[in-house]
Amino acid sequence: MKNDIKIGVVGGDLRQLVAAQELAEEGYEVAVYGFEEYTGSFGMATRCVSVEDAIRKADFIVLPLPYSNDKIHLNMPLSQSEIHLEDIFALIEQRQIVVGGRFDSVAENLAAEKKLKLIDYYGREDFTVLNAIPTAEGAINIAMQELPVTVSNSKSLIIGFGRIGKILAHKLYGLNTEVYVAARRYEDFAWIEAFGYKGVGYDVLEEYLEKFDVVFNTVPALMLDEKRLKKLRPDAIIIDLASNPGGIDFTAAKTLGRNVIWALSLPGKYAPITAGKILAKTIRIIMRETMLNIAMQI
Amino acid sequence: MKNDIKIGVVGGDLRQLVAAQELAEEGYEVAVYGFEEYTGSFGMATRCVSVEDAIRKADFIVLPLPYSNDKIHLNMPLSQSEIHLEDIFALIEQRQIVVGGRFDSVAENLAAEKKLKLIDYYGREDFTVLNAIPTAEGAINIAMQELPVTVSNSKSLIIGFGRIGKILAHKLYGLNTEVYVAARRYEDFAWIEAFGYKGVGYDVLEEYLEKFDVVFNTVPALMLDEKRLKKLRPDAIIIDLASNPGGIDFTAAKTLGRNVIWALSLPGKYAPITAGKILAKTIRIIMRETMLNIAMQI
Amino acid sequence: MKNDIKIGVVGGDLRQLVAAQELAEEGYEVAVYGFEEYTGSFGMATRCVSVEDAIRKADFIVLPLPYSNDKIHLNMPLSQSEIHLEDIFALIEQRQIVVGGRFDSVAENLAAEKKLKLIDYYGREDFTVLNAIPTAEGAINIAMQELPVTVSNSKSLIIGFGRIGKILAHKLYGLNTEVYVAARRYEDFAWIEAFGYKGVGYDVLEEYLEKFDVVFNTVPALMLDEKRLKKLRPDAIIIDLASNPGGIDFTAAKTLGRNVIWALSLPGKYAPITAGKILAKTIRIIMRETMLNIAMQI
Amino acid sequence: MKNDIKIGVVGGDLRQLVAAQELAEEGYEVAVYGFEEYTGSFGMATRCVSVEDAIRKADFIVLPLPYSNDKIHLNMPLSQSEIHLEDIFALIEQRQIVVGGRFDSVAENLAAEKKLKLIDYYGREDFTVLNAIPTAEGAINIAMQELPVTVSNSKSLIIGFGRIGKILAHKLYGLNTEVYVAARRYEDFAWIEAFGYKGVGYDVLEEYLEKFDVVFNTVPALMLDEKRLKKLRPDAIIIDLASNPGGIDFTAAKTLGRNVIWALSLPGKYAPITAGKILAKTIRIIMRETMLNIAMQI
Q: Exposure winner among B221, B262, C61, D256, fewest CB in 10 A?
């Protein structure tokens, strides 16, 4: 049954390649293109010599995350060759489902021209939550590397209580760290209390800052400005997990000599196999949902 | 400052009374009415001989949860006397804020007539999450009482992964129970994985049922029908935490001799002081939000 | 193979009976006597009409815990009949191994006369540690029952960091309780720190006492004298898990109106099936060790 | 009071230096020698230009861990100079207490000649347990670095359930790892069960080996021979925490291409500040015990 469904994976990093192998091992027919620089095993996935070969028979076409870095070419860090977005979309037919990460108006316009169906895995809640696991663990790993003390029995602050904040707090608590969480919503404080952490309102955050050995920021807004940075201990480690523009006044941090690590895209860097398995799981779910939808229309 | 704000608490159970004492201890001027049956201490709250006295000077009037059991009278389990809803609303003036639980169209109509502002604490997310703590712990207490084995090292199933399910899973895991969670959404399974529990889809739930020493249902829909009940071990304990109509086919359970405990309103019964403190905290937040709103309009 | 080994279980409570059933289910031939008051199922264990029948063919004879309450009769709470210790020892032959709990000089003298081998399961470290699990959970259950607040988010003190103290601390921490442990040895404080609890020296214990919602004593020496009891909050719950003479000045506690619960023999009372399974596991290990020893001598 | 006690710290690595600073900050008068290569701050500790100056006034003399690497010279990795053991012992007077790590017969003989009192901090149970915290966390850090998957949700095996094994299991469980512990004693299995891990007997270990993403060995005996190494997955990481000779057949592991990391002396390398604070704490306790002993003799 499974090998009736054909998947083409074009471009991306180790994550896409691991996902291709995972899906191939489960019995799907998986063709890949754009990984020439990779010298390891391709498992049961079939390497193609051209993008056409990888795409031609596919029911689902898997594109990178992000699908493009420059809105012109496909994102292919493991290949020397280049593919124009227009060229790849030209190859795709209407019967094929295109799955990729962080599609924007460029991709949408290209798809609209050909009435193609785009599915973005990046925005899915399940994908994001699962990726918060390697992100949180990667952040703890950085803290372990940077701190001259153990994370165990140290005092840590997490700014923000979204997906990453929640999982990070959970794991730090499991390591017997004293966990403080800065948040704003009353609802968040209720959860913080339920899990046994210590909540700190943003309005009183400054009074607490000198306590901490390590501060994790997860909020993509200026959370640690000069005034707050000054309150931190000089030997504290600051790990910024917030996507662009980050949450720290980097200039002030530099002037003050604060140790700031801006840690982006941790899942792929820190635990590529886990990240690839998460992607495989998400593609599997997308395929299932799509097939169910199609079945419903029959 | 605080004793500029006056609070009147009318009716309700131990929770409302504990909340009144908590707030009185913090410096608010709190008048209470409707607790004549209570023989313990009233702390710094002032007992009034009439409902008029309790209400007259109040800025905030706190009503029970639920505010009424019969849509006619105020809910006053700790009093022999009766107050008609119409009578109490007649006493309230427009400058006063009415805070209560589970207001319905009856209350809304009464309030609308006099242009009163009603605030329902029951529906607030922070209140509900905080109450899920005593609910979850109360459910564990029941399991401990009923099981002839320890909850530690036993196998438990939680049906549903909402607020109660999440906190219950967290605490059972903390007791070294093997925790399975039945859920439907992919997003929920991502969280279940992140916290280290075992997820079970509803479609395959039946295959797992004979494993469990205890099953906690949190979903207010028929989750354990006759077919599923039959799959459970005869000595398993089933604790239903879902509000009316519950999640279990009680008739089938009885015929099959299954041990079902329907545990409703646990916070007030199981940990009344905690429940009262949660109510006090919520009223405090409501007062703060209200005052901020008023201040903004100046 | 297993049913070559025959076991006779004489006297005791539900624990011995559950152990008999467990062992019978595994394939051992198990004969029991002394449970006439028990109206439930005996599973695959064979009920005997006389103590002689239960013992005659047995390779291992399992006696109660404690084997006797009065140094004259066998401990048989589930039977109306009485057996003199002398009578039962008269029935036992030298080829049979006698396994029982809390043997004393009376038992040892009786055994010595006939050159019988006695093995005491009560003193075994593995048995004691396993029983500390239901003891700790039973103590938490009592705290849940008695406290008008949740154990979660409350503050608890454990006096002593032996087996029960260690497991109790672990489970309370897992419930998000703030756990303090009073101990004396530097080594204990090292472990207390390693697990994330808060250590308190006995010399400064008094300063801390007013913090706690619940105090668990595990030390069989006067740990809470009048002076210390006075420092506790009047609404605190004191659970004494220490065997005779306990660790609390009960007279002073009564005078002061402190709520003290002396909770002894929790495993059998609180989780009889778990306690029986622990006994079965221990008997199995004793049989294995004995057979290995015999084999070594061949 | 504290600055009546004088401490001389001679030789050692960052740990001894951090301990010196910690003790100096608490009010002790601390003189140090042998850290010329260290370019950071010495805090309130006084640097001496000769070993005589560091020792002369000291009540307690703190030596390195190990006190010597070659039984001839003092262990001084942060100094270019050399001190013969005989020379330093020649300087010490009978009124002074010598505290150091891993004293052997060489040290004992030198001390005996002058009737000096040696106290070895290395062998102390509290010191060893506290150091097991950075060892366990350092091992987790290595696993995080080496594994291409997250430690969370992976399967790990710990061989041995001593101090390091216990703390490692605790922290891995806190990260939601599936934790297996290989042990031998029934007592250990009781504790393993109490904490919710999975116990594996050495006799059946082989059947389990292919499960694991990471194996931590803590037993200083050949635990992973060729036969067992072959059963491990090729991509599994093996972290050996056992002191010389380690627990792995390194030759076989190399031939088989297994990824083995031999991680010794983690506290000082992985978390030097924590290790230094642990040393300071231990010295403090040794001083207190010594002073108490002296006081008792008055």
A: B221
